[in-house]
């Protein structure tokens, strides 16, 4: 590696740390507190457990990152998780389809819901909040209608290995998928024309249009990717639970949004980094894991997560306000 390439790599790492210094400090502080409160927190087995637990949230949060940077929101991802997992297991158990075609159909169904979201938003100019709120109910309804509201048990060892297997007998496969997707979408966002378009549309839609950015295609692609990743998360979750459950995925969209906001993804669009989303998801995972180790009720955990999201949104709005004030003062000078 040349000296120039080494310098660029160091600058990239420095920028990641500098951009996420606030949330990194919060993560470190929470880790120190939990280490003193419970001796099991820093064990290797618990760290691996945390990574496994956050993997599904990161699958969703990656897609949500693209959507929010674009300037939108996707409330349907939790229901797509339930729909894809329930239908994929049902195809195998109830309809007798082979495993891999069933998985492919499950993934395509999630991508289709995302495609539908993108088309309605891009072509008919309906706000993303309204569209995805509607498809959230539609996808959840499909899962309940297909399953009759009952969970479907699957005993296929090959299917269960997708979500419960290990690489080299050490690393859980969902963690492997997580790292692959993080690297893939970090490259897409930072090194491709598509990633540049996503930031351009979210930053200034009119400027992007005048620059020749195919805004409608970008919107459709982003929501399709979000739906596909949600379907992937649903299949992995159903594999881990050995069943397809129409109740699965409830509230998952909130965890994904929380990870993005905690990671510094601006709700107004145009700014943010995938690295921040990953750190945000880790913080949420650490908090949930720590509260479980301490023995805090899941009801209280919902309360804590709600406050975390609220505080993160307030900080984000104030950050935007301060940034605008600084820009105005610079223009005056």
UniProtKB/TrEMBL annotation:
Main location: membrane
UniProt keyword annotation of NAD present: no
Keyword Cell membrane: yes
InterPro entries attached to this UniProt entry: ABC_transp_permease (IPR001851)
Membrane-crossing segments per the record: 20-42, 54-73, 104-123, 129-146, 166-189, 220-237, 257-287, 293-315
One Pfam family per UniProt: BPD_transp_2
Membrane topology type: Multi-pass membrane protein
Sorted UniProt keywords: Cell membrane, Membrane, Transmembrane, Transmembrane helix
Subcellular location: Cell membrane
Name the record gives this protein: ABC transporter permease
Lineage: Bacteria, Bacillati, Bacillota, Clostridia, Lachnospirales
């Amino acid at each position: 590696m040349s000296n120039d390439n080494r310098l660029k790599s160091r600058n990239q790492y420095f920028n990641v740390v500098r951009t996420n210094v606030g949330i990194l400090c919060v993560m470190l502080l929470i880790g120190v507190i939990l280490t003193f409160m419970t001796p099991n927190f820093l064990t290797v087995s618990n760290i691996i457990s945390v990574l496994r637990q956050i993997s599904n949230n990161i699958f969703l949060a990656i897609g949500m990152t693209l959507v929010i940077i674009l300037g939108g929101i996707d409330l349907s991802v939790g229901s797509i998780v339930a729909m894809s997992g329930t239908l994929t297991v049902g195809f195998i158990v109830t309809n007798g389809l082979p495993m891999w075609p069933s998985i492919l159909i499950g993934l395509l169904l999630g991508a289709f819901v995302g495609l539908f979201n993108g088309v309605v938003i891009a072509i008919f100019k309906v706000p993303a909040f309204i569209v995805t709120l509607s498809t959230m109910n539609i996808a959840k309804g499909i899962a309940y209608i297909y399953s009759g509201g009952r969970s479907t048990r699957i005993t296929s060892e090959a299917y269960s290995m997708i979500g419960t297997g290990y690489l080299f007998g050490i690393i859980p496969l969902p963690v492997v998928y997580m790292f692959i997707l993080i690297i893939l979408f970090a490259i897409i966002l930072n090194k491709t024309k598509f990633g540049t378009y996503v930031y351009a549309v979210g930053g200034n839609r009119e400027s992007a249009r005048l620059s020749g950015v195919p805004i409608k295609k970008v919107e459709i692609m982003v929501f399709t990717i979000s739906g596909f990743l949600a379907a992937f998360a649903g299949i992995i979750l159903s594999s881990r639970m050995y069943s397809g459950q129409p109740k699965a995925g409830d509230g998952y969209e909130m965890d994904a949004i929380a990870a993005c906001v905690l990671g510094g993804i601006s709700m107004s669009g145009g700014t943010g980094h995938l690295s921040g989303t990953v750190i945000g998801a880790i913080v949420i995972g650490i908090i949930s894991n720590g509260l479980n180790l301490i023995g805090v009720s899941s009801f209280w955990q919902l309360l804590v997560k709600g406050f975390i999201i609220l505080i993160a949104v307030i900080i984000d709005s104030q950050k935007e306000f301060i940034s605008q004030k600084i820009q105005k003062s610079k223009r005056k000078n």
